[in-house]
Amino acid sequence: ASQGLGVYDPKLDTAVTWLISDKGRFGAISSQVDTRGNLWLGTRQGLAVLPAPHELDFLRQNANDYIQLLNLPEAGPEMVIFLKEHQGYLCFGNNIGFGLLDLGSYYDNPGNPRVHFFNTADYLPGGSSEQNAVLVDRKGNIWMGNDQGTIRLALDRLVLDTGAIRLDSLFFLHGRNERSEASNGLLKLPRGQRGLSFFWSSTFDGQLLPNRWLSFRLILASGDTLQQSDYLLKQEVSLGYVPPGEHRLEFTLYKDNQEMEHRTIGLAIPKNLEDTWWFWALISGFLLLAGGSILWLRYTQKRQQQRYELAAERLKREKEALQIQAITSSLNPHFLNNTLHWVQAKVRRDEVASSIIDKLAENIRTVFQRSRNREAFHSLFDEMEMVRNYLSIQHRRFNGRYQFTLPSEEEVMLYRHIMLPLMQILIHAENAVEHGLRNRKGSAFLRIILKDEGPYLKIVVEDDGIGYSNARKKNIGGTRQGERMLNSLHDIFNPRNVRKIISNIEDNIYLDQDSGEGYGTRISILIPKRFNYELETDRGSGSRR
Q1: If I label 250, which of 182, 234, 445, 534 is the partner at 20 to 30 A Cα–Cα?
Q2: C-alpha angle with apex 204: 95 to 200, nearest 5 degrees?
């Protein structure tokens, strides 16, 4: 299940479960036992396998300790929602397409099995796969359901490409688009040139769709990795400013998850003249002569040009880091401080503190995983997981004082593919608890509602707390840092889209019959079902929508 793993032993008439909240790592959406008796699991992190499950002592061993998650860059860390074994292949589907894993290849080399992946989100018709919508008919055809219809795959007629490819071209651009290639495994840039780009291409393998990618690493002379990418489809890549020194570049070409070619190229970037002591001695000598002033002018112009290039590169890096900056700043310190202080007081005398810490750690892990990937957005499914974790903590914290009503699991699964800014719902839920419910005597509920409004998904966060304006009048509204972060993200992404993210606040939606004062708040957010969150400098195979 999406909440964890479970097993039932009919001989012992005993069931064992490992919930994610009980320090488990995996929750399975789909499963399949192959002909060798191994259990394949479709998890939220991707495709995983539990070898020989019949040999585990489920009463004494945790299945999560033996589950192996496969590294499949082309399929991505997407939720696998159906599995089916047929004719020596494991067919699996996720939010961006479906794949065929060669089981024989996996058992020969579990670290790098051959996987033929078909991207139906960007390159082929079909869209996202539907949960457990897979069937093999009497003729051996595989039928797969998706959000645009059904795909029939005649596996006996499909000729899968297993031919080898290699790097057909790999050259570098520097300076004013000067082109260079490595000679005897070494690329040496001219003095004074620090900006570097590279272009690559592979031999044509007869496939019109991308089934190959490149991984690269730029390793400095110190041994530190300055830049890297494990899944690169874009053929022209800018490395930006590279400091002087003896570095190396490592390139690996993959096709269908198989390593095709590996190249290591030494990168020599000499110091500029102004970085050496003897240059200054020479300048000092010329300054004593008639031509000193001319040389100084040229040097000044060169330094200004370098400052301009560095400033331009710095601006580009800041733009690329904008999403990370927004995400990390969105982690509301009130949520962490209030929760951790409470847990600190409880941990010595209440075992429930362990569960609270797990849910808090899962939310922090989700935020920083997106931060590491430079993504200030994720799916509605992941957002609701964070909200459930947070409200579960608050339910324990306030001893069930408030009633929290959330959309059903069926509603969440219906809209799970829709992307929205990170913590878009969580921040409003937190504000409702901390600044609304806590500050009105008699407050009782917080509810979150999902409504389909054509091209939009409407999200409503409603509470019967003190009210938005009343909280501000009494100076108990907090810093509103989270709301400012969300507004900043909306200002960045909305100009790039026809349909915008729209937020609306309704204040004092209820009336106290005794005092005549209003209370309660309703936040309405319209999220376009198709929305581009990518910046122009983002790397990857295509935009997330």
Answers
A1: 534
A2: 80
Question: CA 303 to CA 301: how far, in whole Å?
Answer: 5
Residue among 468, 351, 465, 477 at smallest CA distance from 402: 465
The DSSP-derived string for 268-281 is EEPPPGGGSHHHHH
Scanning 199-291, the segments in alpha helix (DSSP H) are 277-287
CA angle 8, 14, 18 (to 5 degrees): 60
The encoded tokens of residue 107 equal: 């058992």
- The pTM score is 0.52
Question: What is the spatial distance between Cα 235 and Cα 467, in angstroms, rounded to a whole number?
Answer: 53
Tell me phi and psi for residue 343, to 5 degrees: -60, -40
| Two tokens, residue 7 | 């097993």
End-to-end CA distance of the chain: 26
Quote the DSSP letter at residue 434.
I
Q: List, in order of start, the domains of the chain with CATH numbers.
A: 4-154 (2.130.10.10), 167-271 (2.60.40.10), 322-528 (3.30.565.10)
Which residue in 493, 417, 423, 426 sits closest to 457, CA to CA? 417
The residue with tokens 């503190």 is 353
Q: What would the pLDDT profile of 354-364 be if each residue is shown by its tens digit?
A: 677 767 767 77
Q: For residue 544, which of 345, 377, 306 has the smallest C-alpha distance?
A: 377
What three-state secondary structure class fits 524? strand
* Average pLDDT score, the chain: 85
Which amino acid is present at 266? G
Q: Which residues of the chain have pLDDT under 70?
A: 1-2, 21-25, 205-208, 275-277, 290-293, 308-354, 358, 361, 368, 371-372, 477-479, 535-545
| DSSP per position, 277-334 | HHHHHHHHHHHTSTTHHHHHHHHHHHHHHHHHHHHHHHHHHHHHTHHHHHHHHHS-HH
In the sheet that holds 178-180, the strands lie side by side as: 178-180, 167-174, 195-202, 236-241
Q: Looking at beta carbons, which pairs linking 392-400 to residues 24 or more positions away fall under 8 Å?
A: 392/359, 393/339, 393/356, 393/359, 393/360, 394/433, 396/352, 396/355, 396/356, 397/339, 397/342, 397/356
Please answer whether residues 422 and 367 qualify as being in contact, where contact means their C-beta atoms are separated by less than 8 angstroms: yes
Q: Cα–Cα distance between 381 and 84 in angstroms, integer?
A: 24
Report the alpha-carbon distance of residue 387 to residue 391 in Å, rounded: 6
